[in-house]
Amino acid sequence: MIYIALLRGINVGGKNKIDMKLLKQSFEQVGMNDVVTYINTGNIIFSNKGKSKTELSRHLEEAIHHDFGMQIKVVVRSLDDVTRIINAIPDSWKNDKDMKSDVMFLWDEIDDESVLENLVIKPNIDTVKYVPGAILWSVDKKNVTKSGMSKIIGTKIYKQITVRNVNTARKIYELMQANNRL
């Protein structure tokens, strides 16, 4: 089975620095196969048989702590999970000079549509959708500072998500599909 491990808060703003080559080795040493990293922000595609996503997450968090001395949260999603998320993103959503569009991958503990009730969503500015495993958000760049969703930073929910822009999410999906063909 093909998975993505999404690490929260590494190599951002000079904090929690982890070399991707060493991270790849760490994953391989604990039994992950066909390991591929994508950009420096903690996106690791791999295959594994026999472990649940919860077991993989715990196992990888322990390996990162052992190898790098850091407590890093790892969200694990299968190719099926990511396919569902990618298919829910409108084709028109981009992350470019005019539009900001993000995928907020949810911790399992808050992965429910009711999470939307705890967000500040301005319907005339924000487009927000729940899909199992993630919250999808898009806003015109000119309205980012007016967005209710921009106020998520520092909240309890923010501490239980890891964010990737839609361009990155689509590339991760492409890499997972390629890994699936190996």
Automatic annotation (TrEMBL):
SUPFAM superfamilies: SP0830-like (SSF160379). InterPro entries: DUF1697. Pfam families: DUF1697. This is DUF1697 domain-containing protein. The lineage of its organism: Bacteria, Bacillati, Bacillota, Bacilli, Bacillales.
